[in-house]
Give the backbone structure.
Amino acid sequence: MRIDIVTGLPKLLESPLQESILRRAQEKKKVEIVVHDLRDYTHDKHKTIDDTPYGGGAGMILKPEPIFECVEALQAQRQYEEVILLTPDGEVFNQRLANELSIKNNLLLICGHYKGVDERVREALVSREISIGDYVLTGGELAAAVLVDAVVRLVPGVLNDGESALSDSFQDGLLGSPQYTRPTEFKGMKVPDVLLSGNHADVEEWRQQQRLERTKSRRNDLLETEK
Ligand code: 6GU
């Protein structure tokens, strides 16, 4: 899989993409992630990527020209299945969407910033608009990092057996069960006996029960809505 990310703030994406599992995924060539600085697609002395809105109002709008130039240069090199704008007014990201995107070959992400993006970018370039939740971020960069993290870990060969995505919370619509590691007793708090029993069937039954109870009490909406 290849993911291109177009942004006015490339530094915001540096460390999230270069640590831990995302770093390893790139080293193993399971995914290639390339960040593009919008300022490299400007032609004025000040490398201007934004401007004031027509009609007035607060804040700055990302200009269309650098985004078009960057995206069109990339599209001349390969066919993108989706061109995604990260924006708070997009479709809300979830595990189903992560699964869907994880089987694509080429994704292009555009990070919205400041007060918005010139509408012609959405009209002519974008196939899909995605938000990561109902709150406002200063820009789409952290949202892009979240999306990439959730998608890349699902790409075959990225996780090892121990990390397998199949046992994730949400993958089957339920939250996870309580987890413990050594010691068996800590500050008077004990690890449940069943986990020390060595009986795998009992452990599995207990975990499934815990997952159902947790989901009911914390996120009953997950049991009611279809995924
Ligand atoms: Cl994708 N962008 C911004 N600016 N805020 C957000 C978001 C995206 N998703 C949730 N809030």
